[in-house]
Request: fold
Amino acid sequence: MNSTLRLVLVLTLITAGAGLILSMVESVTREPIAEQRRLETLRALKTVLPAFDNSPDADTVQLVYGQDKRGRELQRTFFRGRQGSEIAGIAFQVIAPDGYSGNITMMVGIDSEGTVVGLEILSHAETPGLGDKITREEFKGQFKGKTLQGVDWRVKKDGGAFDQITGATISPRAVVKAVHKGLQFYHEHRQDILTSERVGQ
Amino acid sequence: MSLLENFKKGLWRENAVFRLLLGLCPTLAVTTSAENGVAMGLATTFVLVGSNVVVSMLRKVIPGKVRIPAFIVIIASFVTVVQLCMEAYFYDLYKALGIFIPLIVVNCLILGRAEAFASKNRLLPATVDGLGMGTGFTLALFVLGAVRELFGSGTLLGYAVFGSGYQPLILMILPPGAFIAMGLLLAAMNLFDARRR
Reply:
């Protein structure tokens, strides 16, 4: 009995000590981590939006764009970049679920006319050396200047307007499809996004 | 065994990767570039030294029956500290190493050293053992990463080595390339040892 008690006591003390240390480290790093995540979003916004002078990550609109498997609502955040009070451009995240391995998360930026200004890949797990070339400028750059209407939103192999990557067609196909869907959603809800009061953050 | 001997054994004779063949999962997975290899090696070294120190200090307090859960709690705490600090201060590296940081917990090298060495030795030898083993692990990951990066992308630490005409051998940065590079390096080390004897 005595030895069992000792086992329990020692293990409890060790885990309590570990918990104490971890909570201290967590409280020290919480701020810098939140800041890093914010900076990452801001960096992406700067590359995909036309010039702006507000902080788009504090000027957002959230809209429901679908439901997940359990019936919960999926929200999409639209970041509004402004020059003075005029909206210069809108940025939003899209996720391609059909990449070669896992989701591809991207930030798409468009100007007030609906023309794509830039595309930034935020996270992906595509094959190094093949599918991961979607992060290269040669690939991302071809989205610049494209509009929803008048452009065939498919890769060239499927008869569309976008170059695929040698040896990797699945990743570019997924990216093109996701951006296309995002643009369609934007055009359907254009009024809401441009005019509604700022929400969140 | 002198302290110097104790440190040096981790570098070659008992090198974690090339001699003990421990911790191969992260080794093979993250060594797509020299930089990733070094980063993973340093993170592992930090955890290894930390866990060796604490395990050695508590070796008379921890009852044998619960030593494994106690070691795991200690190791997991150090890993979480590394993960939080990396995310806060080295965000790009954190994104590159991703899932493999939490997986340091299950790196058998660390539990192995806690069990085989730190729990039986005083503080100083245990610390030196952790440093030596960690340095050897880091060096091994650097060499493996450098070889794979050199042939797989034609660069070393991000700088182009071969001319622009070089066609990268993509296989080397894919998973099979890890096994191939590892096998060739092991063979080279064995050959070297056999010659020296």
User: Anything to note?
Assistant: The mean pLDDT of chain B is 88.
